[in-house]
Amino acid sequence: MKFEDFLMQPSEEKQSRVDLQEEDEKLQDELNGEVKLNKALQCALQGPIHSCPRLSSLIPLQVQVLLAELAMVEEEITWLERKVEELKLSLYQEQRRTKEWEMLQLQQQRSRRHQKHLLCGQRNQTELKGLEQLSRSQNYEQYKKYKFLRARRAARASVGSALDIQSMSPPRSKSNLLIYL
């Protein structure tokens, strides 16, 4: 039996050695596949899979599809972020233009009020010169009314609105108003 054991022993060792070599080759192939996949994934992290065409053939089809979808989503996110920034800038510019327009409107309003005030002042000066040229005995009544209206205008500017002043003053007849207009 020893002879049989001796004959069997090298064959079993040989078989186990062959089995181990086959398993080693199988594991080596699996390791190579994992290394290739790792390289492809590293490349995909740095850029789209299309930038590494030689690696795309090494990746399984499912992974290629997922990476392509991921690249599309990343591009869309980038586009949306750019769009948000553009809209923020547009909103800021619109707010700035609105403020400038409001300031311009306010300045124009002030300018119109100032011009109106100056025109009223010039008209009053013209009326005063005309009244001073008339003799006092002839137009004493007109002079008195002019002084009254001038005092009212000055009070209007300092007391309050025109409605408040009208409510405080006695009613006037239309004939008196036509004289001064």
What does this structure look like?
The structure is a single chain. This protein folds into 3 domains: 31 residues; 53 residues; 48 residues. The N and C termini lie far apart (147 Å). The protein is built from 6 helices and no strands. Helices cover 86% and strands 0% of the residues. With 181 residues, it is mainly alpha-helical.
SS class:
mainly alpha
End-to-end gap: 147 Å
Global mean pLDDT: 75
DSSP summary, beta strand count: 0
Query: Any idea how many domains?
Result: 3
Protein name: Ternary complex factor MIP1 leucine-zipper domain-containing protein
Pfam family, one: Lzipper-MIP1
Keywords: Coiled coil
InterPro entries: MIP1_Leuzipper (IPR025757)
Give the arrangement of secondary structure elements:
Blueprint: H1 2-46, H2 53-56, H3 61-133, H4 140-159, H5 162-168, H6 174-180
Helix pairs in contact: 3-4
Quickly list its features.
MIP1_Leuzipper, 6 helices, Ternary complex factor MIP1 leucine-zipper domain-containing protein, 181 residues, mainly alpha, 3 domains, coiled coil, 0% strand
In short:
The chain is mainly α. The protein is built from 6 helices and no strands.
